[in-house]
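Dissemination and training. As part of the outreach component of the grant, students in the summer workshop were shown how a complex can be specified as a set of sequence lines and then modelled as a single object. The example used during the hands-on session is reproduced here so that future cohorts can follow it. Participants entered these lines:
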Amino acid sequence: NAGVTQTPKFRVLKTGQSMTLLCAQDMNHEYMYWYRQDPGMGLRLIHYSVGEGTTAKGEVPDGYNVSRLKKQNFLLGLESAAPSQTSVYFCASRKGQGAGGANVLTFGAGSRLTVL
Amino acid sequence: GQQVMQIPQYQHVQEGEDFTTYCNSSTTLSNIQWYKQRPGGHPVFLIQLVKSGEVKKQKRLTFQFGEAKKNSSLHITATQTTDVGTYFCAGSGGSNYKLTFGKGTLLTVNP
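and obtained this result:
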């Protein structure tokens, strides 16, 4: 099992360019999340999905869009990149809700994005 | 919205010293989770606490959940260089769809 795979691992963009980060999980998890991590700011939730075809905003959604067309994939898009979006992006997934480990997050390795 | 405060932001210790990080929520939590992120790595799940007053141990690590389910702590006894990293608490409230993360405590250990 690969777990949660993020592509690309690194990317440099110019201001105004667009790009998509791909997250794929092979654990049949229902819930998927996109976080960004900045120094001293911890992990901040951008968008999340509680099932195929659903998405919802997190605490810092502006400037990002997401799609969950297939259960195993969660895409994060930047339509017009800005230097403030320079960050490390983590995708995470979890089985769902309930007892045991259903609500434990499994993270991908991260995608480091630099916007010049 | 729900806020989770974590202190201290940084902690530097000599190998063999103890370490504690504290987590405080603005609202009552249904559960709290702890994650560890090694330098350059990604967060990895350590443990989940669900019950009021719960205490769990993993070798040298002791995790506590407060009686009011609004605070938690992680204590490491006799730190080792392998303990280096950032420790995050993450709380889940009423909706349970989302985890709100604290800002983390970066632990460095001097050998």
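The first strand of chain A starts at residue 4 and ends at 7. Students were then asked to discuss how this feature might be tested experimentally.
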